[in-house]
Design a protein that fits this description.
- There is one protein chain.
- This protein is an alpha/beta fold and 256 residues long.
- It has a single domain, classed as Rossmann fold (3-Layer(aba) Sandwich), CATH 3.40.50.
- Helix content is 39%, strand content 14%.
- It has a seven-stranded mixed β-sheet, sandwiched between helices.
- It is elongated.
- Belongs to the universal stress protein A family.
- Pfam families: Usp.
- Residues 21-89, 103-237 form the UspA domain.
Length: 256
């Protein structure tokens, strides 16, 4: 996306040619097309997302407060797109995502809003031929009375595991060829997912689709993971019609 013609237009065309060459070198069997659009990158991408199965964007990887407050194209698109969005951060030298230990990680929050994210993660693991890790972060029950007597941590963990397995049951039956490991982490979900991203090929998180300014500035689990994960992150809104079915065939792009 560019803001003017002239030298900028020629430079943008060069970028597209390079991108097309890279895409074809990675997946020569896919039909890939390019499109040069005049205007704001974020709004052009949101328009293209309408009716799409998946939108992939890059990220400069800014993780400080300035980056959070200023926002970025990737964060804006992930918050507002009508389809699942994958954000690819700069390569991390410590990542082993290309090794035999690679896996897809999906955050499970025991709410119906992550159902599509789980389905997306199963499909992504099948496409890559790698295992899936379903991660749920839990904390002990709060004090039950004035004497601060809390529920048994063991019982809380057991309930968390039961709820996680229940959320996975439908997808296990549908994707019997995908090896699945359930992991429970005691603590905050965002930190657990960031830790699990080390060595992962992809982290998938669900989103309730809140796009207002407070959700963007104050942050959420998905935004924290976007800023700090060591691998690509898929943001799957619960209202995405295509969220449980990532594309498996030809990408039908549009050209100018």
């Amino acid at each position: 996306m560019i803001d003017s013609f002239g030298p900028a237009h020629a430079a943008a065309e060069s970028v597209l040619r390079d991108a097309l060459g890279r895409a074809r070198s990675v997946a020569s069997d896919l039909a890939v097309s390019t499109r040069l659009v005049l205007g704001s990158a974020r709004w052009a991408l949101l328009r293209e997302a309408e009716g799409a199965q998946l939108l992939v964007v890059g990220s400069h990887g800014r993780s400080g407060l300035r980056g959070l407050l200023a926002g970025s194209t990737s964060i804006h698109v992930a918050a507002h797109a009508s389809c699942p969005v994958v954000v690819v951060r700069p390569a991390n030298n410590t990542s082993v995502a290309a090794s035999a230990a690679a896996r897809v990680v999906v955050g499970v929050d025991l709410a119906s809003t992550c159902t599509r994210a789980i389905g997306f993660a199963f499909q992504a693991a099948r496409q890559r031929g790698i295992p899936l890790t379903a991660l749920h972060a839990w904390t002990p029950d709060p004090p039950a009375d004035l004497e601060a007597i809390s529920g048994s941590a063991t019982m809380a963990e057991a309930l968390a595991r039961r709820g996680t397995e229940k959320g996975l049951a439908r997808w296990r039956d549908e994707y019997t060829d995908v090896p699945v490991v359930t992991e429970l982490a005691r603590g905050e979900p965002a930190q657990a997912l960031v830790t699990a991203s080390r060595g992962a090929a992809l982290v998938v998180v669900g989103s309730r689709g809140r796009g207002h300014i407070l959700a963007t500035v104050l942050g959420s689990v998905s935004q924290t993971v976007l800023h700090h994960a060591d691998c690509p992150i898929a943001i799957v809104r619960h209202d995405c019609a295509t969220a449980a079915e990532p594309p498996t065939g030809v990408y039908h792009g549009r050209t100018s």
